[in-house]
Amino acid sequence: MDAGFSVQQAVAIRGDRIAAVGSDQAILNAERGAHTKLIDLHGRMVLPGLFDSHVHPLGGALSEFRAPLPVLDSFAAVQSFIRQQAAKTPPGEWIVVPRTFPTRLRELRMPTREVLDVDTAHPVMFDASYVVVVNSLGSSAAASPATRPIRRGRDRQGRARRA
């Protein structure tokens, strides 16, 4: 895959690896040898197989159902997201920074509560899937069952809310 997500005409395979992609002529000129086997796909596409032994297809398919996931690539981007959410969230309600792994952040680490304290009117939870970090207000609120985060469409006991 290149930066432009371009579609190419030809692919050269050497052994079990993709050796080159490009136009038909470029690949034939650069890669054709005495033992080259040519296969004409008649306009069909080659899509390399991808293996993922830990798949969540439903979660992946629905991940942007309600809204696009924000691009969060640094602490500054996380703080900007928190400020944006705070502007439209009533004070005291939880703000959840959605599924952001530290390996995707420029800082390559989990944010601290001080990073998340950019807003002090809302408890904030940074969700890294298997581990979370909360801001100072979130830490205080998490100690009380009455202020724990509520999943959308659920009450504090986890039961579905009626419309």
Tell me what the structure shows.
It is a single chain. The protein contains 5 helices and 5 strands, in the order ββαααβαββα. It has helices at residues 24-31, 57-62, 75-88, 113-116, 136-142, and strands spanning 10-14, 17-22, 95-97, 124-127, 132-134.
List the helices and strands and how they pair.
Layout: E1 10-14, E2 17-22, H1 24-31, H2 57-62, H3 75-88, E3 95-97, H4 113-116, E4 124-127, E5 132-134, H5 136-142
Parallel strand pairs: 3-4
Antiparallel strand pairs: 1-2, 4-5
Tell me the series of helices and strands, N- to C-terminal.
Answer: EEHHHEHEEH
Name the beta content range: 5-15%
**Helix/sheet category:** alpha+beta
Number of strands: 5
